[in-house]
Amino acid sequence: MSDQPQHGAYGDGARPRHRGPEETYGTQYAGYGRPHPGPGPMPAAAPETASGPVPAGAPPGTAATGQMPVAPPGAAAPGRPGVPRSGGSPLIAPGFRPALLTAALAVLVGGAAPLGPLPLAAAVLMLQAVTAAGWFRLNGMWPARQGIVLAFLGGLAADAGLLLTWSGQAAAVVLGTLGVWCLLTLTLHLRNRSGPDERLYALSAAFTATALTVVAAGFLATLDMAGSDAVTAGCAAVAVAALARTLPLPPWVSPAVALLAAAGAGIAAGQLTGLSGGGGLAGPAAAGGLLGLVAGGCALTGLRVASYDYPSRFVHMTAGVALPLTLAAPAVYLLGRAFV
Predict the structure, then answer these.
(1) N or C of the chain: less Cβ packing under 10 Å?
(2) Tens digits of per-residue pLDDT, 110-128?
(3) Over the stretch 215-226, which tens digit does the pLDDT of each residue have?
(4) At residue 24, does pLDDT exceed 90?
(5) Domain spans of the chain?
């Protein structure tokens, strides 16, 4: 048996093709059933080269030279392990299970709103915990216990401030908590001794996680300023939009269907709760439809963000669950105030 050529002879971009047992055996015994040629002069022996005999299954053009062709620099061999597949989309939608969890969380928040501030605060706290963990995991920073805990404590401080302050101070409480926690995050990141790019990336991820977690308290602020009807309608729209987005529809049709479904859910919730818009200028159907349409758009934005950069299953089960509902919180608050 001849010596196998070393990998260095194949260039940087190609490797020898390993044959399976069936292909090897078929090559070795392919000539056993052929008749022996008659007597005659022996053919002239082919001049041997320094590279050795030509392996079986070599590409055309190797019989004359006895050398394997060298792949051009930068060409990747097919099936080469360790090389990432190119051409695939980095966007992977969360799918049905995260959408089902989003709907369950939205039902929990929307159902807790009519029960009062404390049940709603408990439901929002669950949303904030999943949001903080999911954003850091979405950015590839795991485990990031200190950042997750800091962002979660910011959301907890916002919830406590909304529960303890007088009515009408919701916006000041949320903005004040956000400012204090961003300053605290910046102070803690001064101890980071990594490179400038890594520090900037970690700081931006921590700022965004803190902002999202604090902004999720907007459902509590809506309850304080506009009542529970807007919270219920917005959460219903998010739940329906997340589930409708998983339907097997064409890429450009699915978002439109999800938005229409969210608007329909908002209309239904507005009719059930008696939601009115603009001090009674708009009826429950119009107010609920507008709120559902905007909340559904925020939910689709959250699903899109959670689909970026080849997300893992853990990203889908955290960021893909929480972001659709978290991004809808400020929209529900603003429209809820407008409807008062």
Answers:
(1) N
(2) 999 999 999 999 999 999 9
(3) 999 999 999 888
(4) no
(5) 96-339
